[in-house]
Write a structure and sequence with these properties.
- There is one protein chain.
- By secondary structure, the chain is α+β, with helices and mostly antiparallel strands.
- It is built from 5 helices and 10 strands.
- The relative contact order is 0.18.
């Protein structure tokens, strides 16, 4: 047996790392999607943000929604997991967990308060218009609607929604903002 084994610290230092974020998919009673416009980038985003060290994704989602739009919402089902490969200027891949933030009525919408240090605006946007505002993360809109409908998390690899394997799996059509799938048992 050799004594040249890596220590745990050495082994982990050689492993790839990723950035991690969490967000909320929130709609109004008309089915429009809540997006926020950060002041530090050109594209709009779902309410959410970076996960802090040792923070669970669902807790990061709740914290970020509270910070960004002033709402203390229950975090619902995990709708989308999005793996985004390295993309300039980001030097590492990003994994994003998108949770169901529910549907807000007019009274809850009136409670929205923007975090002015980071955000310039918030708006409920028609689902077909949202992907253009979101840029490369726009693929998450159709995937989130599909997940809400099917009750199954949708995995997105890069720009492509990957169907779940097995009954009830579906794919998001990223070109139209619609979702469809085979919802029959095998």
């Amino acid at each position: 047996m050799s004594d040249d084994k890596l220590t745990p610290e050495e082994w982990y230092a050689q492993r790839p790392s990723v950035y991690a974020s969490a967000g909320a998919f929130i709609t109004d009673e008309q089915g429009r999607v809540l997006l926020v416009k950060p002041n530090y980038r050109p594209d709009w985003l779902f309410p959410g943000g970076q996960i802090e060290m040792d923070e669970y994704p669902h807790l990061a989602c709740a914290r970020e929604v509270r910070e960004e739009v002033g709402l203390d919402l229950p975090v619902g089902d995990l709708l989308v997991v999005h793996w985004s490969p390295t993309r300039a200027p980001r030097p590492r891949p990003m994994v994003t967990w998108l949770f169901d933030g529910g549907t807000l009525d007019a009274a809850r919408i009136a409670d929205i308060r923007l975090q002015e240090e980071e955000l310039d605006d918030a708006a409920f946007v028609e689902p077909k218009a949202a992907p253009e505002l979101l840029g490369y993360t726009g693929v998450r809109v159709a995937a989130a609607f599909e997940a809400r409908t099917s009750g199954r998390t949708v995995y997105i690899a890069g720009m492509d929604a990957i169907p779940n394997h097995g009954p009830g799996s579906g794919t998001a059509d990223t070109s139209t903002g619609t979702a469809s799938g085979d919802h029959t048992a095998s």
